[in-house]
Amino acid sequence: MVDDGATLGGRGERGVLAEVFAAYAGLPTDGVLVGPGDDTGLLAVPTGRVLATTDTVVRDRDWRDDWSTAQDVGVKVVTQNLADLAAMGGRGTGLLVALAAPPSLPLAWARGLAEGIGYAAGLAGVPVLGGDLSSTAGDAVLVAVTALGELADGVTAPVLRSGASPGDVLAVSGPLGRSGAGLELLLGGVTEARDEQERRLLDHHRRPLTDLAQGPSAARAGATAMIDVSDGLVRDGDRVARASGVALVLDPGAVDRLAGELVPALPLDRARRQVLSGGEEHELLATFPGDRSLPEGWRRLGQVLPVGSDGADAPGVWQDGARLDPATGGWDHFEG
Amino acid sequence: MVDDGATLGGRGERGVLAEVFAAYAGLPTDGVLVGPGDDTGLLAVPTGRVLATTDTVVRDRDWRDDWSTAQDVGVKVVTQNLADLAAMGGRGTGLLVALAAPPSLPLAWARGLAEGIGYAAGLAGVPVLGGDLSSTAGDAVLVAVTALGELADGVTAPVLRSGASPGDVLAVSGPLGRSGAGLELLLGGVTEARDEQERRLLDHHRRPLTDLAQGPSAARAGATAMIDVSDGLVRDGDRVARASGVALVLDPGAVDRLAGELVPALPLDRARRQVLSGGEEHELLATFPGDRSLPEGWRRLGQVLPVGSDGADAPGVWQDGARLDPATGGWDHFEG
What we know:
The structure is a homodimer.
Chain A: H1 8-23, E1 32-34, E2 41-44, E3 49-58, H2 70-86, E4 90-101, H3 107-124, E5 128-135, E6 142-151, E7 169-172, H4 178-187, H5 196-206, H6 214-220, E8 225-228, H7 233-244, E9 246-250, H8 252-260, H9 268-277, E10 284-288, E11 299-306, E12 316-319, E13 322-323, H10 326-329
Parallel strand pairs in A: 4-5, 9-12
Antiparallel strand pairs in A: 1-2, 3-6, 4-6, 7-10, 7-11, 8-10, 9-11, 12-13
Helix pairs in contact in A: 1-3, 2-3, 4-5, 8-9
């Protein structure tokens, strides 16, 4: 970050926007009929249906300035939003970006944020349609992104949380617990990676990038329910289980294999805990009919059972005959 | 606001969302294929094009808790967003609502906000598609709304800021300066209206409601450029003038007539200033071909001249041979 001493307040709204728009100049413009700079954007929607989601990140809750660059924050907030689209079987078609910050914020930070957003949006081929700039009275800094999208080619219906059926297989699109493990490293004072594994974990915490095409792949492969792991396997799995009225029963061996990927950066017990409860992962959790093979890259996590079987007497995520508590297995924005 | 002592932190994310969704239960669901509660919303877009805009309001910048209720804030943020759609010739089809607040925020405030949003959305017939809830580390409270929309029936192309031509007429869809005048009253200690005029001004500052159908009306009547007056006549007019490369020349008589509507709540000189610079009005400013009559309810403000004529030697808003300075005639979010 080149900090030239300029602030948002010194540059003024129009000056800041000029810098921000420059960071988005290289993005694709497919479908953008009216881009940033007018009252609203206008986006072509050839499929006749638009997916829409919004996610906000807040300084000192979702990132710390001493651990994350502005670019990191930009990547993270875009991934969060695009993963929600992927979890429906969709792909991004446009982003709206709102920044709220005090006038004293370094202009270089706003520029870095836009660069990070532009980088992640560019990887996914998604244009920026517009945004908003607001000043905050205290020192709060927030970035609220809205992502618009469409169901991907070959996906005819959105994959909801409510479609899991007994007999389905539970699977995940990639590793779990990386972001939580990275946060544990940071909290333990490891801000610089000492090996390749630590680097991967710290990177995934700071700027998660996942394979967003796995959502449409899963949808085309017949996924019956899907969610992105933003609040932890147990907590997000619990949402699928309750919406579908089923029990998701984890295979302890599968959990241990995922945990093993976090060792030795974390000891095995903490690695297991991160696999179950670590948030901000943004891999996809999905259920598939039991008679089909999983799409490439997906790992089997367990099975979907009817409530009442094998001692699973309520919808939820179960392991070894016990229901895993979503309240302690994940992150509640207000209960902590 | 019935404050039962509950807070966001005490109720937890799921509990808060249940209350919030209840406030939206009466909204229309036209076009909503997937509503709140899954990873994203899914909205039908029969026209094949979606308008999208986002606007954020921040406590102690955009409202003060001692002057505005939570319901007021909800109405205001919805009007801000829908007015942007109207200014393109559009109408709302869906809203996304993000609230960021400390865990100590009274639940009653969040409920009141949702009620205000539901009220304004209901007037406009717009469903809520989804949202986000985040906690802030300090005491910042922010509401970021994204509005999706479509060009209204009979509107074939969006009305941009850049389409004004010499020979056009400049007009506004209603009164100007009410919100700014209401703010002046509040700053002067008048928090309770003493007459009907003060009541209208305070109401428009706290919870602006404008006739959003005037945007599509203007578009159908051939409006060549349009913007909503969110930062003041001079500042927003300047944006149209620069985008179109023209001079907007105000008729002093028209400005005085608008100012007269703010008298005697304000003295005439301060009323004139509010007409020119008062923001958060959310009436529409548009240019129309000079040979047509204005749509019902619109008031003529002046004319569009080529740059270089009548001493208007630069794009901008002009009156009595002088260019009005957008920096002092309006509100810059960072220059103050």
